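TASK: fixed-backbone design
INPUT:
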C-alpha cells in the first residue's frame, strides 16, 4: 500500500516547504492539499490557493507525487482547471495527480452569491466536468457542449508531461459519480460515509460497499477493476490511524484487505480539533517501516 500525507495550505511558506521536504525525506509516496477558498475553522485564518502552493511544493521537493483533494465545480471550470493541471504537471516533472469531486454545500458553493445545487444537478454538473477534463487532458484541440459547460475549440498544447494523460482521481460515492470514475478515472477517492456513520466500523462498511459498486461499474464497461487505484482519505470519521503506530498498522491491514491501494493521512497539527495526533507520528511510522521507505 502506498501512503500519502495531506498538508492543508495554511502555514507560512518557509514552514510549508520545510514540512514537505521532511515528509518526502521520510519516504512517503504522495503529498496532497485541499482545494478550497476557505474551510471550516480556518475560514478567518490564512488559506493559500492550491495550485500556486503545490507549484511551490513541486520546486521544494524532487520525487514525491503531488495532488489535489479535491477540485470541484463549485468554483472551478474544466478548461482553466485542465490548463492549470497541465502547467503543474510540467513544473513538477510529471508528478501531479488531479483529484476532483462534486463539491459540497459550504462556503465554496455560496461565495458567489448563489444557492448550492441540489444533489441530482450537482451530480450532473460533476459528470460533465469529469468528461470534459478527460477530453481536455487527452486532446490538444477539444470542444464540448453540455448543459453546464460549453467549450469551443480549446487548445491545451503541450498537453500533460505524463502521457497519455496525467492521472485523474475522482472522489465519488453515489451511482453517477462511481460510473464516471469507472469510465474516466485512473483512481477513486473515498472517505467512506462519515456523515451517516462516522464510526470506524461504519467507515469501513461504506468503503466496502462503495468499492463493490465501483467493481460493478467497471464490469459494466468491460474494464478491469484492478486498473483503478483506490485512495482512502482518513480523518473524516472517528478512526484515528495516527493515534499510535499500532493504530496505523491496524488501519493499513484492514483497508489493504478491502483492496485500498493508497492511504492518505493528515499531517498532525498542534491545536487542530481534527488532526491533533502526536506531532512526531509520521516520523514514528517511517522509523517503524510501516508502508513507507526510510531514506538516508
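OUTPUT:
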Amino acid at each position: 500500500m502506498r501512503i500519502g500525507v495531506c498538508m492543508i495550505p495554511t502555514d507560512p511558506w518557509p514552514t510549508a516547504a520545510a514540512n514537505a521536504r521532511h515528509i518526502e525525506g521520510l519516504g512517503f509516496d504522495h503529498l496532497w492539499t485541499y482545494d478550497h477558498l476557505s474551510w471550516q475553522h480556518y475560514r478567518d485564518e490564512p488559506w493559500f490557493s492550491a495550485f500556486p502552493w503545490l507549484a511551490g511544493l513541486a520546486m521544494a521537493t524532487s520525487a514525491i507525487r503531488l495532488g489535489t483533494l479535491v477540485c470541484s465545480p463549485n468554483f472551478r471550470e474544466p478548461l482553466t482547471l485542465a490548463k492549470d493541471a497541465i502547467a503543474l504537471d510540467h513544473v513538477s516533472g510529471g508528478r501531479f495527480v488531479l483529484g476532483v469531486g462534486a463539491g459540497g454545500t459550504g462556503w465554496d458553493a455560496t461565495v458567489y452569491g448563489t444557492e448550492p445545487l441540489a444533489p441530482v444537478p450537482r451530480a450532473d454538473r460533476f459528470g460533465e466536468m469529469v468528461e470534459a477534463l478527460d477530453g481536455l487532458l487527452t486532446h490538444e484541440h477539444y470542444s464540448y457542449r453540455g448543459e453546464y459547460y460549453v467549450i469551443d475549440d480549446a487548445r491545451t498544447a503541450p498537453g500533460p508531461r505524463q502521457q497519455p494523460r496525467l492521472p485523474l482521481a475522482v472522489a465519488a460515492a453515489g451511482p453517477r459519480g462511481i460510473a464516471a470514475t469507472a469510465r474516466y478515472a485512473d483512481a477513486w477517492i473515498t472517505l467512506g460515509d462519515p456523515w451517516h456513520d462516522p464510526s470506524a466500523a461504519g467507515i469501513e462498511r461504506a468503503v466496502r460497499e462503495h468499492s463493490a459498486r465501483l467493481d460493478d461499474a467497471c464490469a459494466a464497461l468491460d474494464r478491469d477493476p484492478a486498473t483503478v487505484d483506490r485512495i482512502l482519505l482518513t480523518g473524516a470519521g472517528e478512526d484515528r490511524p495516527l493515534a499510535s503506530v499500532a493504530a496505523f498498522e491496524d488501519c493499513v491491514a484492514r483497508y489493504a484487505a478491502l483492496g485500498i491501494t493508497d492511504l492518505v493521512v493528515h499531517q498532525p497539527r498542534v491545536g487542530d480539533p481534527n488532526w491533533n495526533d502526536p506531532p512526531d507520528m509520521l516520523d514514528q511510522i517511517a522509523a517503524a517501516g510501516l508502508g513507507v521507505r526510510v531514506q538516508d
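COMMENT: The mean pLDDT is 95.
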